[in-house]
Amino acid sequence: MQRLYDFLRRHPTWVDCFWAVFLLGVSLVGENARQEAVGTDSPAAVGPIVVLLCLVIALRRRMPEKMLLLTIAVGAAQLMLDVATGAADFAMLVIVYTVAATGARWASRLALAVGLCAAALAHMRWPNEHTGPLGNFAEVVFTTVPFALAWVLGDSIRTRRAYFAQLEERAARLEKEREAQAKVAVAAERARIARELHDVVAHNVSVMVVQADGAAYVLDAAPDQAKKALETISSTGRQALAEMRRLLGVLRTGEHQEGGEYVPQPDVEQIDDLVEQCRTSGLPVDFRIEGTPRPLPSGVELTAYRIVQEALTNTRKHGGPNAGASVRLVYFDDGLGLLVEDDGKGAPHELYEEGGADGRGHGLIGMRERVGMVGGTLDAGPRPGGGFRISALLPLKPAH
User: Fold this and answer.
1) Residue 202: its pLDDT value, please?
2) pLDDT surpasses 70 at 397
3) Residue 199 lies in a domain
4) CATH code of the domain containing 359
């Protein structure tokens, strides 16, 4: 039964053809009954008119506007050829409903106008001689109501379909917007993860490489220094692993793990440890804090730590063997200032100008993105007297 229902829904014209044949049979039976009651033959035009009206039923959904015009022509022929109304004229009600529901707007208005005039024209052509003027008027009103109701029902169906179509369009648009927002969120999350991985790997690996080179250089001449360098490599590697576990923990659970094997996100207080690590690796760093330290938003603290980390990593990579660095952390009333300078030979130009044509310089690009996310400003470039300089201003509000 369900298959039959689905088939009929996919082929509505077949259903209309069935009702057209049914109406044709009813019309023929009614016409024969009328001939037997009156005792006279029907006009010759009755057959073609009945067939055409049944054709209107069969094709009403495939070509509603054309079937409306055909119905009007058939109705005019009935009036001119004196063919009285019969069962086949029910097609006029059906086409008025169909055009109001699915046809063009001009056809809908035309169907309403013709439907309201049809009953009056029929009573003028074939008046009821057994009733007075008031009775004829009542019959006109009574027979006009079905045409008005058919049009109102069809127009209501049109409005409802338009409303549901609008809801479907809106739902589809919202779904596309959600997909777009999801893609943007995924891209942002990938960028954040890439920045975190870059900061962790670049800093710790650079420290390990410097210490490994130093250990290899003094391995025979100063075993104690080589041992100390190896211990630094070991501790730095463990710190890098802890950072990587923290990132993986965030990816797996979506939350920062405060206990167990995962460590919290680095903050401003850990900058001192970072500076000490750089000093241990052989980079002289002068670290000063100005102003009154106070709690900061977690995003600002992480951004400040990563900027200092990246700046010192770049100093080790590009500053040369005798470079030194200074870090200033300044607490203003409405912001946190960072100033990291070194006296080395400075980074190549392509590393701080739009990332470079060769695709390098992702660390400074990541800095700008981090600072932009917290609404701050960043300036990076060579110092007038040599070396490299990075300054940032991060707006902040007191943490409650």
Assistant:
1) 64
2) no
3) no
4) 3.30.565.10
Question: Global pTM?
Answer: 0.50
pLDDT digits (tens, 9 = 90+) for 154-177: 999 999 999 999 999 999 999 888
Q: Is residue 309 part of a domain?
A: yes
Tally of CA atoms within 13 A in the half-sphere of 378 that contains its CB = 24
In a domain, 204, yes or no: no
Which DSSP string do the residues of 21-62 spell out, in sequence order? HHHHHHHHHHHHHHHHHH-SPPPTTHHHHHHHHHHHHHHTTT
Residue 48: inside a domain = yes
Domain end call among 82, 109, 126:
126
Task: Tell me how many domains the chain contains.
Answer: 2
Of 96, 126, 156, the position where a domain reaches its end is 126
pLDDT over threshold 80, residue 237: no
| C-alpha distances out from residue 178 to 169, 171, 187, Å | 14, 10, 14
User: What is the sign, positive or negative, of the torsion defined by CA atoms of 65, 69, 72, 77?
Assistant: negative
For 104-143, the pLDDT digits (tens) are 999 999 999 999 998 888 888 888 777 777 877 888 888 8
Domain that holds residue 341: 268-400
